[in-house]
């Protein structure tokens, strides 16, 4: 029996690789990709006529592995309740697409296994506006920003950074205020364009995101690298911790080092040391 997924594992995920639920032949390959997490998708990647097969595949996987990350269909669809029913016996990370308010989260929480967690996918304008109340709900582990559907609602390309700036600034701030791990950024749909992927990752990291949703295994290594502290960062953090005293300021390489800087150094070291023990 697989070990249950922990909140620390969810919080430390740098890469979350999506795999279609109707393609069980890809499940093991996804888990072997090096991604910190694998999300088996019952939603957008699965056509309506394949939903039943995808749901059966997820049920079979859970019967063997007992836990997984599953993206279900949103609450407005006819598939939502059937998705929830197959997950109820198991400890799962449930990704809820188009999460729009705290009531959706509360209602879903009551239908799931008590040891499950919810990862709201914020991809609507209402979801962005309501993100503070969403992040405060029990069982919410972390949030994902859905740039593709959000861009569709705004009437812009999902690659349009200016239009996405408000949402991408809001979610890291709200997550921090709610005590959650930094959010996971949305998709880079150009799956073979390494430069675009790197640009998107650097942009997300600068805004305070801590991971990325990946469409293809070839996006995983660059994603993990971006959200892993560099050797230079670790050297700086250790120098700060070695030299500074918690309650007093000092100067290191011309930089004033006070308590907030020391705390940042400690958090960076902790982030570097924390790894996902197993692919989830």
Automatic annotation (TrEMBL):
Q: Where is the HpcH/HpaI aldolase/citrate lyase domain?
A: 14-217
Listed cofactors: Mg(2+)
Record keywords: Lyase, Magnesium, Metal-binding
Out of the domains of life, which is the source? Bacteria
Q: Which Pfam families match?
A: HpcH_HpaI
GO terms (molecular function) for this protein are: lyase activity
Look up keyword Lyase and say if it applies. Answer: yes
Q: What is this protein's name?
A: HpcH/HpaI aldolase/citrate lyase family protein
């Amino acid at each position: 029996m697989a070990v249950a997924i922990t909140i620390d594992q969810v919080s430390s995920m740098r890469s979350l690789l999506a795999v279609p639920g109707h393609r069980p032949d890809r499940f093991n390959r996804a888990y072997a990709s090096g991604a910190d997490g694998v999300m088996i998708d019952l939603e957008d990647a699965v056509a309506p006529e394949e939903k039943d097969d995808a749901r059966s595949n997820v049920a079979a996987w859970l019967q063997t592995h007992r836990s997984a990350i599953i993206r279900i269909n949103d609450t407005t669809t006819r598939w939502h309740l059937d998705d929830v029913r197959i997950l109820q016996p198991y400890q799962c990370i449930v990704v809820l697409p188009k999460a729009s308010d705290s009531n959706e989260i509360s209602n879903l929480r009551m239908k799931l296994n008590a040891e499950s967690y919810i990862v709201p996918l914020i991809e609507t304008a209402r979801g962005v506006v309501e993100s503070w109340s969403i992040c405060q709900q029990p069982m919410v582990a972390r949030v994902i920003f859905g740039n593709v559907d959000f861009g569709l609602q705004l009437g812009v390309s999902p690659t349009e950074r200016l239009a996405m700036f408000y949402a991408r600034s809001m979610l890291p701030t709200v997550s921090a205020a709610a005590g959650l791990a930094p959010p996971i950024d949305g998709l880079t749909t150009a799956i073979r364009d390494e430069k675009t992927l790197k640009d998107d990752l650097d942009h997300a990291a600068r805004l305070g995101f801590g991971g990325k949703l990946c469409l293809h295994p070839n996006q995983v290594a660059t994603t993990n690298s971006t959200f892993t502290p560099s050797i230079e960062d670790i050297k700086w953090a250790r120098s700060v911790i070695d030299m500074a005293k918690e309650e007093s300021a000092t100067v290191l390489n011309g930089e004033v080092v006070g308590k907030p800087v020391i705390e940042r150094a400690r958090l960076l070291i902790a982030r570097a040391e924390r790894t996902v023990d197993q692919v989830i």
